[in-house]
Amino acid sequence: MPSRLPSPLKLINNYGPTEATVVATSGRLFSDNVVPHIGRPIANTRVYLLDGHGAPVPYGAVGELYIGGAGVARGYLNRPELTAERFLPIPSAMRQAPGCTGPATWRLSAGRQSGVLGRNDDQVKIRGFRIEPGEIAARLCEHARVREAAVVARQDRAGDKHLVAYVVCGPEAGSDDDDGSGLAVALRAHLGGRLPDYMVPSAFVRLSALPLTANGKLDRKGLPAPADDAYARRSYEAPQGGIETALAGIWAELLGVERVGRHDHFFELGGHSLLAVQLMERLRRLSLGVEVRTLFARPVLADLAAAWAAITRWRCLPT
């Protein structure tokens, strides 16, 4: 990471996608660069950061990188359909180069340099939302305890997709024996103030190093499934009484965790609106109806059980 660079070292990052020459942009990395960047375009090259509608994005916003100029290839060999999809004519308002292509997703950082967030072909779709895992990983790396991060979509026991973050902490973060749930709580709070709820991972797995393939890329198959301590859960206390015990069993099944304590939070354990509806349906089948708004208002198991008990007592009062 740039923050680990010794001060005498001079490091130049030259970037160029397959669809262009070896180098399309270039820039020096300094020790205080929070997010690695790819610099500025070289001579006879122009870069554009555009949104999904082809309009330029403002500085600091996320967009897709398009490259134009003399170094852009003519297309893919014997792949006319893919060439038509990836090699696009430049709009007349920006027509200062013969062609452009957009293989990756980036953020424009300070000084008009481009900071890498990840490739857009790594996008995932979860509950109708298109998500760029690289953007989440970049936000995680802004946390003081995180040195490296990767975010992937995994299927839980019920077959639903959810986001899982894998983080490598720096030595200042303490021992690997630290409470994993505590780290998950801290990172979830960190992301919650920077990203929408649907982009906050359900689990945060701490690793000593990210697994890599032989060519140095992330080995997704080598990422372990999250254990119970990877979730942002509170100090465990066993459920009390029949209502809490019944709720804990349903939560554990829906959320794909081994156990649920009375102080656990439905949404911090990976719950979301669709699972909330499924929970309400499970309770309805047991003739234990609770409105979904009650869950959103009281998402902690003990609090929801208390609300459930209060509603049950109210219904049983003599008229």
Describe the structure in your own words.
This protein is elongated. The N and C termini lie far apart (69 Å). It has helices at residues 80-86, 133-140, 180-192, 241-255, 273-285, 292-297, 301-316; strands at residues 11-15, 25-29, 40-41, 45-50, 62-69, 87-88, 100-109, 113-118, 124-126, 129-131, 146-155, 161-169, 203-207. The chain contains seven helices and 13 strands. The protein folds into three domains: 2-118, Luciferase, Domain 3 (Luciferase, domain 3, Roll); 123-230, ANL, C-terminal domain (GMP Synthetase, Chain A, domain 3), CATH 3.30.300; 241-316, Non-ribosomal Peptide Synthetase Peptidyl Carrier Protein, Chain A. β12, α3 and β13 (203-207) form a beta-alpha-beta unit. Helix content is 24%, strand content 23%. The protein has 319 residues and is an alpha+beta fold. Strands 4, 5, 6, 7 and 8 form a five-stranded antiparallel sheet that branches.
